[in-house]
Design brief:
The complex is a heterodimer of chains A (169) and B (312). Chain A starts with a helix and ends with a helix. Helix content of chain A is 76%, strand content 0%. With 169 residues, chain A is mainly alpha-helical. The relative contact order of chain A is 0.14. Chain B is built from 3 helices and 13 strands, in the order αααβββββββββββββ. The longest helix of chain B has 40 residues, at 42-81. Chain B is globular and about 95 Å long. Chain B starts with 6 loop residues before the first helix and ends in an 11-residue tail after the last strand. Classes of the chains: A mainly alpha (169), B alpha+beta (312). Chains A and B meet through helix 3, helix 4, helix 6 and helix 7 of A and helix 1, helix 2, strand 1 and strand 2 of B.
Chain lengths: 169, 312
């Protein structure tokens, strides 16, 4: 009896892992690094994490969790509400359609497909911000943020893959 | 997970897929709803934001300390390499500052005498809360930082956030134990300032770049690169005379200023506001509320005792 309770708890903890990890990354990405000029081009770690887990463990990254993560990102970022929530959800919808194909694909293929997905996500974020503020915002900073995000992807994805192998077998 | 088997699954599987899709669409609709809500009810959004930042603040506080320590170490290593040179530089600066100090003393005495003569109303004193920067949301669209002091420490919305160099921003949201400071470079930041020795009024408007613009300067006003920009104190709780930056670019496109604040080393901020001493509260009354916590230092300073950069 005792054993089953513990195993069940263990199972719940493991199944919460992708959500908890993404939440930690979303919160962690606002820790001040004090690196000159880095803050405006800080990669969107949340986007990477959501992309990864929706491909490999969509059952552990349900829609409400994605929405919640986007909302927290919006609230912590100090920008208009709902933008990241929407962009994260649309990313999930876009990836979900190709999931079976992606999940069996190679690491490079998944990364290659992250390029257009992230590009679309950042363009959408930029557009929504412009609409919300009712003015044209310089897109260069967004472009650099996109580049750092796709550049960081392999490192994070490798770590996620290790974690998945260790915890979610 | 148990899967329904047999003939029932023929009905439930599409039904479940349909419900799944519906729930997803509902979430997307809620995201749009949130955008509208953010436009309509800013107070509610502000409260939601400060609740979340409050919840995350202790975590950020802990996480930002090692980052600070590493940075301090790197900085001190860099300084170590050039101790002699810097020492000489500081000696020279010290000499220069000493003559400025003498001048300031003289002017202070003269100022006091003139005030006495004209029966001028004394400046209200400033009240400070010192806070550590614990969060920097970054990204391409907003320039704000989170600090580890909130309503509990006496932080109020609208206070000026300053460093030892000059004005950094304005308190935009206040939680119990955290607050968000909108930096002067943020696209939503508008601060009334006075330019140059003529103290011509203008509005300092951020546009997310490192150099904010000067707007609404009266036509015919002569502004040159190197002119000092200070807060004018117009339109609210901002103390006048806080150093902001110097005019760095004068062109037909826009006047831009270079803020004094060193954005890469934004570790502590002082949040300052007017204390209407003598009107609402005796000057000494606030002293009784000084907290023992190291990061909640409150000090009293006359407006004329503020740190000013001795450059001009």
């Amino acid at each position: 009896m005792n054993q089953t309770v513990w195993t069940r708890l263990d199972l719940v903890a493991r199944s919460l892992f992708p959500f908890a990890l993404t939440l930690l990354l979303v919160m962690g990405s606002i820790v001040p690094l004090r690196v000159p000029d880095f803050s405006p081009i800080m990669p969107s770690l949340g986007l990477i994490s959501i992309y990864f887990w929706v491909i490999y463990r969509p059952d552990l990254m349900p829609g409400w969790a994605v929405f919640l993560l986007g909302l927290i990102q919006d609230l912590l970022g100090g920008g208009p509400l709902g933008i990241y929530a929407l962009v994260f959800l649309l990313t999930v919808a876009a990836v979900g359609a190709q999931r079976r194909f992606l999940a069996t694909g190679s690491f490079t293929l998944v990364w290659a497909l992250f390029l257009p997905v992230a590009a679309a996500a950042f363009v959408l974020i930029w557009l929504l911000y412009c609409l919300n503020l009712n003015m044209l915002i310089d897109p260069r900073s967004t472009m650099f943020q996109y580049l750092t995000t796709v550049a960081v992807y392999p490192c994070l994805a490798w770590l996620f893959a290790q974690a998945q192998r260790a915890l979610l077998r | 997970m148990k899967r329904p088997s047999g003939s029932i699954s023929h009905i439930t599987t599409p039904l479940r897929a349909w419900a799944h899709r519906f729930a997803f669409l509902l979430l997307i609709a809620s995201a749009f709803g949130l955008m509208l809500l953010g436009k309509m009810d800013t107070l509610l959004v502000e409260r939601a934001r400060s609740t979340v930042t409050d919840a995350v603040a202790p975590l950020l506080d802990a996480a930002s300390r090692p980052a600070d320590a590493i940075n301090d170490m790197i900085d001190s290593l860099g300084e170590m390499a050039d101790l002699r040179g810097e020492n000489a530089l500081l000696r020279r600066e010290n000499d220069r500052l000493r003559s400025w100090q003498a001048l300031a003393r003289e002017l202070e005495a003269e100022n006091a005498a003139l005030r006495e003569l004209t029966h001028a109303v004394p400046d209200s004193s400033l009240r400070f809360v010192s806070a550590r920067v614990i969060g920097d949301p970054g990204g391409a669209f907003a320039r704000s930082v989170l600090v580890n002091a909130g309503a509990r420490e006496g932080v109020v919305k609208g206070q000026a956030a300053i460093t030892s160099n000059g004005l950094a921003g304005r308190v935009a949201e206040v939680g119990m134990q955290s607050a968000r400071v909108l930096l002067v470079t943020d696209i939503n930041s508008r601060i009334p300032v006075a330019v140059g020795s003529g103290r011509d009024r203008a509005i300092l408007a951020g546009d997310n770049s490192v150099r904010p613009k000067l707007l609404y300067l009266a036509p015919g006003v002569d502004v040159a690169p190197g002119d000092r920009v200070v807060t004018s104190g117009h339109g609210g709780a901002f103390p006048p005379g806080l150093p902001v930056g110097i005019v760095s670019q004068v062109g037909e496109g826009a006047l831009r200023i270079q803020p004094f604040v060193d954005w890469a080393h934004l570790e502590y901020l002082r949040l300052a506001d007017y204390e209407l001493s003598g009107v609402l509260m005796a000057p000494g009354a606030m002293n009784g509320t000084i907290s023992a916590d190291a990061n909640q230092v409150r000090e009293h300073k006359g407006a004329k005792g503020k740190p000013q950069r001795a450059e001009r």
